[in-house]
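Exercise: predict the fold of this chain.
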Amino acid sequence: MERRSALKNMGLAFGYAVATPTLLSVLQSCKEKAPYAEWVPSFLEKDKGFALAQTLDIILPKTDTPSATEMNVHTFIDTFIKEVLEKEQQDFVLKRMDMFFSKIQKDAGKETIADLTPEDIEPALKTYLRKRTEEEEEIHAKAISGYMEAIMQGGEATLEEDVANFSFANDIRDMATFAYKNSEYIGEEVLAYLPIPGEYIACGDVNELTNNKAWSL
């Protein structure tokens, strides 16, 4: 398979299906993590990491279950970008991240990205995570595909702000959900978890069998 085609099949930015057990172990160390305000990312710039962590806790806030950052989702994503993605993919993530948070910074009238608060970020997520029409999704997909093809061929390309922001917000939500559900605590304590398969019930109601919980991955 051509490298470009493989990139498309990986969702252009996050090929998280290839996350290794070692990388997933980052999600199991939540009890030892420092508050994310003091977190120093291994790949992202500190201000971008701080903004990302706030964004993740808006997407997956603390309720009767832990928040995204309490499950180390921010650390997982930072490590994943650094250790799994190829250079072109890393650049694509950073470009969209810059555009996303720069737009929020401008709209909020803040001097720097480090000054952003959850109240600044939440309206942008509501905008860019809204349900798109099929036509919008097709236009966005073609724009991203065209951009990545040009970059992979060594050329230059531009990406419209709205396209970049919709793409980034949706990729981050998907990545956050994947990481969150793969954390040990969520998998064993929140989702339906059965380490050793038991009785096979062919026609049982799934909601009744799992108490309305999704199965742990």
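Check your answer against the key: Residues 87-108 form the longest helix (22 residues).
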